[in-house]
């Protein structure tokens, strides 16, 4: 999480596009609250199937990015974080370090990349605010 939080301001300065959207701690705290809500929804909401849950969480995750970030670098890093974290989780589950009771996407749950994406955007907002 610390590496991801540090990557966001570094990538912004490297691309020459400083992030200017909603730069205050109140916005960061609201982003954290929405992330906690998305995470809680993934565990507590009951859907007819996992495809509906995954699509709903994907829409909520993109909504989180749109509401609190809206930068191309934030979208790219969020997708990268989700992809890399999902690969690492796949590797850990495949090697028996972790286990899911009912995996539906290779060895993990299909909604997990959405949670990683939301977490990446949230930690990135914290990193950007701390970099100020």
Automatic annotation (TrEMBL):
InterPro entries: INSIG_fam. Mediates feedback control of cholesterol synthesis. Keywords: Cholesterol metabolism, Endoplasmic reticulum, Lipid metabolism, Lipid-binding, Membrane, Steroid metabolism, Sterol metabolism, Transmembrane, Transmembrane helix. The gene is Insig1. Belongs to the INSIG family. This is Insulin-induced gene protein. It comes from Ceuthmochares aereus. The chain crosses the membrane at residues 51-68, 75-94, 106-126. GO terms for biological process: cellular response to insulin stimulus; cholesterol biosynthetic process; SREBP signaling pathway; SREBP-SCAP complex retention in endoplasmic reticulum. The lineage of its organism: Eukaryota, Metazoa, Chordata, Craniata, Vertebrata.
């Amino acid at each position: 999480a610390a590496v991801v939080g540090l990557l966001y301001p570094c990538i912004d300065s490297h691309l020459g596009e400083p992030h200017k959207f909603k730069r205050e701690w109140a916005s960061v705290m609201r982003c954290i609250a929405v992330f906690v809500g998305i995470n809680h929804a993934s565990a507590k909401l009951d859907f007819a199937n996992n495809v509906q849950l995954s699509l709903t969480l994907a829409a909520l995750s993109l909504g989180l990015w749109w509401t609190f970030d809206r930068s191309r670098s934030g979208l790219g890093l969020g997708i990268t974080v989700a992809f890399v974290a999902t690969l690492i989780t796949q590797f850990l589950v495949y090697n028996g370090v972790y286990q899911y009771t009912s995996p539906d996407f290779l060895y993990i749950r299909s909604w997990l990349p959405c949670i990683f994406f939301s977490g990446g955007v949230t930690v990135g907002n914290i990193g950007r605010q701390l970099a100020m």
